[in-house]
Amino acid sequence: MSHFTTFAAIDWSGAKGARHPGIALAVCERGDAAPVLVDPPGGAWSRTEILAWLKAHADAPMLVGFDFSFAPPFLERGAYLPGEDTPVTARAFWGYVDTHSPDADLGAASFLETRRGTHFYLGAADGPKADFLHHRRCEMAYKAQGGGKLSTLYDAIGASQVAKASFAGMRLLHHLGPAVPVWPFDRVPASGALVVEIYTTIAARAAGMRKGLSKLRDGAALDTALAATGSRPHAALARYTDHATDAILASAWLRANAARADLWKPPALTPVIARTEGWTFGVG
User: Which residues are CB-neighbours of 105 under 8 A, at least 6 positions away?
Assistant: First the structure.
């Protein structure tokens, strides 16, 4: 994995609309210089602008981490959306989500809203929340390693939910097409860019932040976390947000861990999982 010389992390958003303050992109180069934020072209990033940025860097030796789940659970029930005629591989499912999501800027909120109560939990009217708590194999592995409470793409309510962002992300991956490979659905290339799924909490834990305190809201705390990844202090930000600091720390964490063979070949990652559910880089 040594051909990567640039490391990018993107804190993602599934919010409705065309401009998203919740998206942040940070990049660092090989070495120990702190990651820097990439300024959005319009004051706040759109998802389509992130897609364009990624395509423009397709030939760069860049490892890119997105903080969303690349596919729903499949193995637990043998389907992504049981009872609905959906594809059986992640790449095909990305296209299915895109086809059934007319939302602006690669959004996917309508995909969930039209299936609420059937596949997605959006409130008490949808029935017992426990009926929607299905998980991928990588999430189960993360919990077994002490990672804490599991999240699920079928729970679309609350501040910690990742459903809307993940389904919007699947639309981005579909439109990315063959321009940039996506691990583990594709092989790691010998040159050019590669996209992986990340979980910013893993970077926070690796930086010594204890459970329940995974957000960095000031420069001193960010520098302390960066130092734990082998990074020099960052250039002061005009404003410290969870999105910006998550992206900066995750970018440094990617750089520090990109050459770890064990993270590229986790024992539980089977060929079936690799083509259906995918895996979070950083879960052993």
Answer: 17, 18, 20, 46, 47, 48
- Mind listing the pLDDT tens digit of every residue in the chain (284 residues)? 579 999 999 999 999 988 999 999 999 999 999 999 999 998 899 999 999 999 999 999 999 999 999 999 999 999 999 999 999 999 999 999 999 999 999 999 999 999 999 999 999 999 999 999 999 999 999 999 887 777 899 999 876 678 999 999 999 999 999 999 999 999 999 999 999 999 998 998 888 887 666 577 788 999 999 999 999 999 999 899 999 999 999 999 999 999 999 999 999 999 999 999 999 999 98
Domain tally, the chain: 1
Q: How far is CA 268 from CA 67, 101, 203, 244, 278, in A?
A: 21, 32, 21, 32, 11
Q: Chain centroid to CA 233: how far?
A: 25
Question: How is residue 36 written in tokens?
Answer: 């820097």
Beta-ladder partners of 194? 63
pTM: 0.95
**Residue from 21, 58, 67 nearest 40 by CA:** 21
**What domain range includes position 19?**
1-284
CB atoms within 10 A of CB 55: 14
Q: Is the previous residue joined to 73 through a cis bond, with omega within 30 degrees of 0?
A: no
